Amino acid sequence: MHIGIIGLGVAGISILKEVDKQTTQEMKEQLSVTVFSESEGFGTGFPYQPDDDALLINQYTETMSIDLENQEEFIEWVKNKRSLNDLKNTHLPRSLFGEYLYEETLKLIEKLKVAVVREKVQAVKILENGQFTITTDRTEKQVDSAHLCIGHLAYQDPYDLKGETNFIYNPYPAMKKLSFENETPSIGILGTGLTAIDTYLYMKKTHPKAELTFLSLEGRFSSVRGHEPDIHTHYICRESIQHLVEKDKDSVSLERIKEWFQKETDDHGIDLSWVWQNLGEGTIEGMQKDLQHKEALGKFQALIRKLRDCYALLWNALPDEEKDVFLKEFGRKWSFFKAPIPQKTARLLINDITEGKVKLLRDIRSIKKENERFKVVFNDHKVQSYEHIVNGTGQQKDLTRNIHLQQPVVRQMLEAEILMPYRYGGALIDYPSMCAVNQKGGRVSGLRVYGQLASGIQFGNSSVEMVAKSAQYGVRDMLKDID
Ligand SMILES: Cc1cc2nc3c(=O)[nH]c(=O)nc-3n(C[C@H](O)[C@H](O)[C@H](O)COP(=O)(O)OP(=O)(O)OC[C@H]3O[C@@H](n4cnc5c(N)ncnc54)[C@H](O)[C@@H]3O)c2cc1C
């Protein structure tokens, strides 16, 4: 069997790792593996590419590993390589995680005798015999099984500014894209998510006199990461949910999930209604409150993280009407609890914003380039202007809109109807085989999809742990074909 892996970030590396783990030597001899990856992000992926140390992993060090059986793998690696101890509850630079990934990649490439094509894939086509051709500008290969691990979708461009001088559409790597000659550039940072916060941290370190303004719709960041204890669940566990879904999918309803969740929180001594109403607001006052309740908040966040392995099962078992109810009633706040920011970062933001060193403005109506500056109009008709705008609005996960922003292979696979846009983001994927579902509703066996393209069926998640898990499921399903 010839396996093609497109993209070599966390997903692509996890596929290699799982192929290694799930095969005997005899099986390995029947496999040949080719990876295709652009040079930028080769063996690290987009978030963990070489960049400034100001850009941090947003999870605690002890929870970052791509080895699902050894949660300590990264922390042990750091201890050995950097002689750092006492790493519990720390947030290390993302580029350090990239170094660990890169080392793993080189080991796996050698061990599995992987052929490497360091080129960007432009197209993936299905042949009549069920094989796939993977095409770059210079190479074309046929494979029996293709793993699409291209990671992040294109950034959004809500004010149609892409191409304007001084509009920084994609600010990574920050060391390259956020270098300004002027010591005091005036910069509007669009958004308040992860990328916007990275921009703030990097600028604060490299251009402490820059005039920074967060330009947002609602003026909210996220929840602050509390102190997370080890948690074991009793009511929502993968085995029991899987059993239930296989036996009777219709027995899963939003009401039942709420009941289980309530029992789970009661069991851990979490006052669900108090936490929900009082914490995780994401405003400056909200972050201050989170910092005062780190234990209660951390317990809740640890529980949410622990349940990740069940998200896709539960989410896919729910009828769409109930998914919509969930998103409307709980979606926004849940996303804040699910993706917290480090405490130190929250303290910096609170201080700088309350002392007026950095501005946080909300209710943007429009942004246009006029006379070499970006003119921002707010809902109350007030106007501000900036020399530069940095785009921190996150990725365009809806594949029915602004397709021109997506990279060629995504556009080609949508046009060829091999991928079907999924209403909750990314493409429709059959879970847990991770096989693409085409626009006729058929499962494309042999083509498996991971990362942000698969995040819609994973309840919006594409964290390291979720991506590594989906690689485990995808490889397990693929290997059934050669058993
Ligand atoms: C800024 C940022 C910070 C994050 N921080 C965290 C964190 O701290 N913790 C966490 O758990 N998650 C974090 N995430 C979530 C992140 O999605 C995952 O951690 C992980 O990087 C996903 O891996 P991936 O392989 O799907 O994508 P990527 O890491 O993006 O890797 C995709 C790879 O495919 C290559 N590629 C793309 N297109 C092609 C093509 N056409 N041909 C060939 N190669 C291609 C790219 O160059 C890249 O190397 C973060 C995400 C972002 C954007």
UniProtKB/TrEMBL annotation:
SUPFAM superfamilies: FAD/NAD(P)-binding domain. Residues 5-152 form the FAD-dependent urate hydroxylase HpyO/Asp monooxygenase CreE-like FAD/NAD(P)-binding domain. It comes from the Bacteria. Pfam families: NAD_binding_9 (PF13454). This is Pyridine nucleotide-disulfide oxidoreductase. The lineage of its organism: Bacteria, Bacillati, Bacillota, Bacilli, Lactobacillales.
